[in-house]
Write a structure and sequence with these properties.
Helix content is 48%, strand content 0%. It is mainly α and 69 residues long. The chain is elongated.
């Protein structure tokens, strides 16, 4: 098998090149601290986020993200 055997190559960077956990924690961490929950660490915050995200996806499976500038 040679690279020239292919017409198109793709690879998935979702979750590989993008550190979602870093971004989630950096955005939500300061809000959690401001809300008086400074003792919630990174792992606990990500655990809570994952639980809430899964529940939201079940409640609104057809909803898409809205990005505002």
């Amino acid at each position: 098998m040679k690279l020239t055997d292919f017409k198109v190559l793709t690879f998935d960077c979702y979750g590989t090149l993008i550190d979602w956990e870093f971004g989630i924690y950096n955005c939500l961490g300061p809000l959690i601290k401001r809300a008086g929950n400074a003792d919630v660490g990174r792992n606990k915050l990500l655990e809570i986020y994952a639980k809430e995200e899964a529940e939201q996806e079940v409640e609104t499976p057809a909803k898409t993200a809205v990005i505002r500038k």
